[in-house]
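User: Hi! I'm working on a homework problem where we have to compare a predicted structure to a textbook description. Could you give me the structure for the chain below?
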Amino acid sequence: MKTPVDTVTTTFDSPLGLIRLAASAQGLWGVWFEEHDDSPDASHWAPDPKHALLQQASHQLGDYFAGHRHQFDLPLDLSTGTPFQQSVWRALLDIPFGQTSSYGTVSSAIGKPTAVRAVGGAIGRNPLSIVVPCHRVIGANGALTGYSGGMQRKVALLQLEGRL
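Assistant: Happy to help. Predicted structure tokens:
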């Protein structure tokens, strides 16, 4: 994952643990839980809790966890991913609140029905947890599958959305 040069960061204290937020001049590009698989080293990013976009993201996450928000309205910077990953992440944005989808359905949605494993890899590298709702993707048989933020968080997010 390539980190935007102009990254600013802050943290948000969620009911599921501390979340690191990262933004560039183009938009929000990172939302990671503590101990998130694949989260980048944030030690060289400029902390800026008063950054307008980071404040807006924190506010919207607060509304989401309180059950008052079903989708996010934030500018996103998906440039840290490959073109394929970006197409997968954009497809995740089409999964409605309270619904789930399968890896195969996401593969078909991006026009690559046989790329199920590659789609799974791209979903696992989604840098925008919750905002780009990778937690809504489950196995074709309805089984819960991995989540980079931890399986207990995936369960909690789906419960929050009334899916479990």
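For your comparison, note the following. Helices lie at 52-65, 83-92, 103-109, 116-124, 151-160. The two ends are 32 Å apart (CA to CA). Good luck with the assignment!
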